[in-house]
Amino acid sequence: MNPVISLNAVSQHFASAAALTDVSLSVQPGESVALLGPSGAGKSTMLALLDGRLSGWQGEAQVLGKPLLATGIPSREDRANTGFVFQEFALVDRQSVYQNVMNGRMGRMNIWSSLWGRFREEDHMCVTRALQDTGLSDLASRRADQLSGGQRQRVAIARCLAQEPELILADEPVSNLDPAHAERILSLITSSARSRGIGVIFSSHQPDLSRRFAERIIGLRDGVVLFDKPSAQLTSGDIDELYHGASVTSGLRVVS
Amino acid sequence: MGRSVIWVMLGLAILWSLTIGDMGLGKLPGAGPRLAEFLGRMIPPDLSVWREVLTGLAETLRIAILGTLFAVILSTGLAVLASETMVSPTIWRPVRALLAVIRSIPLILVAMLMVGAVGLGPLPGILAITFHATGMLAKFYAEAIDNVAIAPVAALESAGANRIQQLRWAIWPQMAPVIMRDTVFRFELNLRESLILGIVGAGGIGLYVQTYVRSFQYEKAATVTLAIIILVLLSEALNTALQKRFN
């Protein structure tokens, strides 16, 4: 089977500081991968890069069987096929929960009818199902700016699910959720990945939760892949090294 | 600048103003009775002029509506050029400076210039309101553009929405309430300000104010004044009611 993601020696620099250095990895269809690492490790950068929103990086990247270009944004169809859960939710505050989730369908619908708000039955069904799956059905008509942080995060997830992507990239998708909701959401995302054969990468600061729901864990620190192994093989030593170990490039930083 | 310096300058400004030549403070004691007598001559208001008053008010209303409409159209284009997020500083800086200059010219002055340019009637009034209101509306619209949060727009783009869909479902929903609020607010100002346009011959009810006062027909002037008060109160109530809907 072709991988849904394949990175080969990818590096990204922002204003002379390295955000990602020589990253290589691949994700298979149906596989759920957790991205762990301290703040500033490059998790968000890697996810945004895979979403096709970054430019100027080096290396080779393939997403859903197509080469990702370091210039310009992907086509409408490619963007629709890759779902993204934003860390800061990125909701339209004055819109209802329902419309925010419907926004995830934009890449799948006829542009002209979408401008008039004429959505197909199919689109309404996807939105309704995504709201049910994330436990938001009762809040559908509520305005997004009247929700709690956790509810907003679930709207962001519902928007991504309604998009029916073939790959889900989620930037700390459960950071604002209570334990029960966090488990429900991660189980939802990873089980739908398995059943539908789509790939999932989510970043997280919760090693235990990540190990339970992801099949593989990638440890990222200072833009470098520290380890990439099946969840079952993850040791507490790995976690210690990831969060408390000496900085991989700190020597270089001081010199530069 | 130190705080004490500001207080000293304020004090000096007041003292300087008090030295204004022949203020005629001696006239003040007699002003009360004279004002009472003047007001007495306005009572009872002569309601027989209701037809003229309604015609004048209707013209003022039309001037305000058309002036606002044209200002909205002009401002939509200028706002993009005055937006810090849409164009480079070499464009928005001069455009904003121009808008500031436009705002700084009093409406009545603009109206006099327009009367000079196109003659008497409602047309110079409409042009004056358009010109004057654009200075404010274009600035407000530009701020509405600049205050649009980018993250939701990026989210729609990431989901596959094209530019027009992003505009319709992420940018416009953020801007619309601000634009509506600013426009209704400006319309109320336009209506108030256009009431006096007739004094310089730029159309509307102002003409009757001037005519009746100049010809000492205070009972008729009283009717005009009452009509203006009612119109302003109504427009204020309408504005308040609409503002609640935009947030």
How does this model look, in words?
The complex is a heterodimer of chains A (about 260) and B (about 250). With about 260 residues, chain A is an alpha/beta fold. Chain A has one domain: P-loop containing nucleotide triphosphate hydrolases (Rossmann fold, 3-Layer(aba) Sandwich), CATH 3.40.50. Helices cover about 35% and strands about 25% of the residues of chain A. Chain A contains ten helices and ten strands. Chain A has helices at about 45-50, 75-80, 95-100, 110-115, 120-135, 150-160, 180-195, 205-215, 235-245, 250-255; strands at about 5-15, 15-25, 30-35, 60-65, 65, 80-85, 165-170, 200-205, 215-220, 225-230. A six-stranded mixed β-sheet of chain A has the order 6-7-8-3-9-10, with helices on both faces. A four-stranded antiparallel β-sheet of chain A has the order 2-1-4-5, with helices on one face. In chain A, α5 (about 120-135) packs across α6 (about 150-160). Chain A is globular. The model of chain A is unreliable at about 250-255 (pLDDT under 50). Chain B has about 250 residues and is mainly α. Chain B has a single domain (about 45-245), classed as Orthogonal Bundle (MetI-like fold), CATH 1.10.3720.10. Helix content of chain B is about 75%, strand content about 0%. Chain B has helices at about 5-20, 30-40, 50-80, 90-105, 105-120, 120-145, 150-160, 165-195, 205-215, 220-245. The longest helix of chain B is centred in the first third of the chain and has 32 residues, at about 50-80. The radius of gyration of chain B is 23 Å and the shape is globular. The two termini of chain B are about 40 Å apart. The mean pLDDT of chain B is about 90. The chains are: A alpha/beta (about 260), B mainly alpha (about 250). At the A-B interface, α2, β6, α4 and α6 of A face α7 and α8 of B.
